[in-house]
Amino acid sequence: xxxxxxxxxxxxxxxxxxxxxxxxxxxxxxxxxxxxxxxxxxxxxxxxxxxxxxxxxxxxxxxxxxxxxxxxxxxxxxxxxxxxxxxxxxxxxxxxxxxxxxxxxxxxxxxxxxxxxxxxxxxxxxxxxxxxxxxxxxxxxxxxxxxxxxxxxxxxxxxxxxxxxxxxxxxxxxxxxxxxxxxxxxxxxxxxxxxxxxxxxxxxxxxxxxxxxxxxxxxxxxxxxxxxxxxxxxxxxxxxxxxxxxxxxxxxxxxxxxxxxxxxxxxxxxxxxxxxxxxxxxxxxxxxxxxxxxxxxxxxxxxxxxxxxxxxxxxxxxxxxxxxxxxxxxxxxxxxxxxxxxxxxxxxxxxxxxxxxxxxxxxxxxxxxxxxxxxxxxxxxxxxxxxxxx
Amino acid sequence: xxxxxxxxxxxxxxxxxxxxxxxxxxxxxxxxxxxxxxxxxxxxxxxxxxxxxxxxxxxxxxxxxxxxxxxxxxxxxxxxxxxxxxxxxxxxxxxxxxxxxxxxxxxxxxxxxxxxxxxxxxxxxxxxxxxxxxxxxxxxxxxxxxxxxxxxxxxxxxxxxxxxxxxxxxxxxxxxxxxxxxxxxxxxxxxxxxxxxxxxxxxxxxxxxxxxxxxxxxxxxxxxxxxxxxxxxxxxxxxxxxxxxxxxxxxxxxxxxxxxxxxxxxxxxxxxxxxxxxxxxxxxxxxxxxxxxxxxxxxxxxxxxxxxxxxxxxxxxxxxxxxxxxxxxxxxxxxxxxxxxxxxxxxxxxxxxxxxxxxxxxxxxxxxxxxxxxxxxxxxxxxxxxxxxxxxxxxxxxxxxxxxxxxxxxxxxxxxxxxxxxxxxxxxxxxxxxxxxxxxxxxxxxxxxxxxxxxxxxxxxxxxxxxxxxxxxxxxxxxxxxxxxxxxxxxxxxxxxxxxxxxxxxxxxxxxxxxxxxxxxxxxxxxxxxxxxxxxxxxxxxxxxxxxxxxxxxxxxxxxxxxxxxxxxxxxxxxxxxxxxxxxxxxxxxxxxxxxxxxxxxx
Lengths: 390, 603
Hints:
The complex is a heterodimer.
Chain A: H1 3-9, E1 15-21, H2 42-55, H3 57-60, E2 63-72, H4 80-93, E3 94-106, H5 113-121, E4 126-132, H6 136-141, H7 148-160, E5 166-172, H8 179-191, E6 196-201, H9 209-215, H10 224-240, E7 244-247, E8 250-252, H11 259-265, E9 270-273, E10 278-281, E11 284-288, H12 292-300, E12 306-311, H13 314-327, E13 330-332, H14 333-340, H15 346-354, E14 358-360, E15 364-367, H16 369-373, H17 375-385
Parallel strand pairs in A: 1-2, 1-9, 2-3, 3-4, 4-5, 5-6
Antiparallel strand pairs in A: 6-8, 7-8, 10-11, 11-12, 13-15, 14-15
Chain B: E1 8-15, H1 21-31, H2 49-54, E2 62-68, E3 74-80, H3 89-96, E4 101-107, H4 114-125, E5 129-135, H5 144-155, E6 163-164, H6 173-183, E7 196-205, E8 209-218, E9 220-222, E10 226-229, E11 234-237, E12 240-244, E13 248-251, E14 253-255, E15 259-263, E16 277-280, E17 299-305, H7 311-323, E18 329-335, E19 339-346, H8 349-361, E20 367-369, E21 376-380, E22 385-388, E23 400-415, H9 419-428, E24 432-438, E25 443-451, H10 452-456, H11 459-466, E26 472-483, E27 485-492, E28 495-496, E29 502-505, H12 506-523, E30 531-537, E31 540-547, H13 563-579, E32 581-583, E33 586-588
Parallel strand pairs in B: 1-3, 1-4, 4-5, 5-6
Antiparallel strand pairs in B: 2-3, 7-8, 7-16, 8-15, 9-14, 10-11, 10-16, 12-13, 12-15, 17-19, 17-20, 18-19, 21-22, 21-23, 23-25, 23-26, 24-25, 27-28, 27-29, 27-30, 30-31, 32-33
């Protein structure tokens, strides 16, 4: 039995499905997701993807799935017929729940109204637009292919096609960005009245052209203090408008939290397909090769295109538990104790409270905005001090 | 088989660091067929990884070679290795006591250096026959006539007694072996007398217990003999005796004059002391051998386990390490900042570093070392005199009549163009100039009297950089002198951190306090809370720095593909925190406890 299969058997709750579409019209210079500008192997890829999903038929044995997420890359490059092909493979391997959350990421620059309606008729019920900014110069800096006007009209087209659950992704703390610009961006995003907004500070990821430019000194990243100020501004703006801040960078109208992403953060199972995609089942994580060529040749040879696996040790599961819960703003100390038989020393919590980093009701640590800003530091601080329960 | 002392030669090699001692030792082993050339790992005798890495010999080892001399006779040559660094003169003298002669190696391009001189004095004190060898004669910078003159001046030999060699190029090796046979006296002592053997080294073998390295001075030592360790008075049975080839080679008996090892089922590290005399348990000799002088610790420092629950492990590790590093002294102490640990006495700063590194590498200990200090003699107003080897234990100023600190005579040999730099450095370090003599037209021997406390902090590194690496340095304890010293405390968020206290001269205290605070500001990372660093003498704050709180430490994105990567970053951050000491709310990295060492670079 493969690890995937053995892991599955002891964990029968509904699973999330992630499909990675590794193509973009143009690579953004800050992005480190696996994606290609060369689309010549697109047909082979779709065939391979269908085959990959089918290869797991035995393993997942019609397991129930309640979220589907097409990410990338640019999934909106898929034609409705390609999407349909992939979906039928998914239905062959999994049992799709009634009303699953079905998200497709879209580039605002390549939205096709006719496609949107067809996606919808195929079951897609949530769109996520990579808007990033409403200033053309910022979009240009980010090497995006769309402009601000197209971003606004993309959301309108989605509404017209009947989508009632839409996300827009925003990026802030661009080099030299002012708080005024940031506020204007957030106001504009809010004015579109989407159900969900993700707002990320610009991360300089290793291996990206952005990183190279930073190392050469051509681009100076925003300093820590202005990034911190901007992050607080984002949080307060979103919350003032009634959005729920439910993860470091994610805000939603009540009831519109992204169920699929919550699976990542609550250590629930997800099955993923396509190059570089990561799967997680019951303490085991494995990920596919980040190379379309290897992916295609593996699938062709009937091999699962896994690059590496890891079985999380109890202490790694604990590390992820603390990190991922604090990223959602709350850590339940009694749940922590019952799951892992460790306790957080009182003085550690008191220090955090006194510093204004969290509220504590004797059971749940609730991060304040100040605490969200320092989430990693707080996670490491708590983890380095965990003690045996008293 | 009985071996006449006539055919035994016991010798060591003494040299300044990097003058080629280890390479020469390798060559002798190769030439005598003790080890085949292709099996050679560079520097065979230096089998501690640390030694090989630093290119220095820390611990003495011994090895036996068989050599057929030109006179047609077969000789047994016992080479006893010695350390070369200034800190280890004590260990050198240990090795010397087991020998009748020494090869004195001097680099042809460097000439006589400070440690050449100090080692020569030790060898002459021990009554050894010296064979002067100029090494590296094939190097372009070789100054053979000059170095010959220096050697003649130093040891009073004749020019024709000086051998020329290049251990690297395998030149002159036969001549050296012949000189060992012809010039070094045969061992005195007789096999007929009752057994007296000098323990010159020991190590712990997890399977066999303590292995002692011995030189038989009188009598014989046979397997199964009862042996008496004179100092402890304990009797054991000799399970195995043997000679030291590349491995231990058991023999039935060892006779007067020879060098070898003894395994006697000794499990307790405290029962064997280097310097002790081994006697026959049934027929003990009347008097022991002279043994070694007691070690004097010059530098003290607190050693603490980074994780307090590993205190017992550290205690065991120190006990094992002490077995073959008799110069290491330690006793338990408690610090409010660091918990339970040990106050350790070292021969010098290098010795301290080596102990620290050996604890980490050989015994897998993560330790925090506090700022090294010397031992102060404090005369209290009550007339009571106390010795203080931990600054935190310095009495309050009101109780102190005066404080005395150790002074050393420092000898610095360097090219004469650097004398100015050396003068300035030594004056900055409160030195008292004595005199300058010239070894030859280009090189001077400068003598200063310096407070020991001033040379334990980076003096040697400074000296090297001010003389472009040309200066060599040695020192010797001189006396204790009254000085105007004060205790400088460091406070973190208002609490005194005892492990950061130091004793400094009053004239330097303000500058010191300011530099130390500023250094700590750089070494202590930003935290969730503001950190206030203060330097104080008594209740008077003389410097203040603050570390503003961290503002942002969160990664924006964390989805399926990223979780493993993010967790690894978090694990690193968490481990980093575990290595830090928590003082109040402040997480202090280990390096901070040694901040003083790099203080002179602070602007």
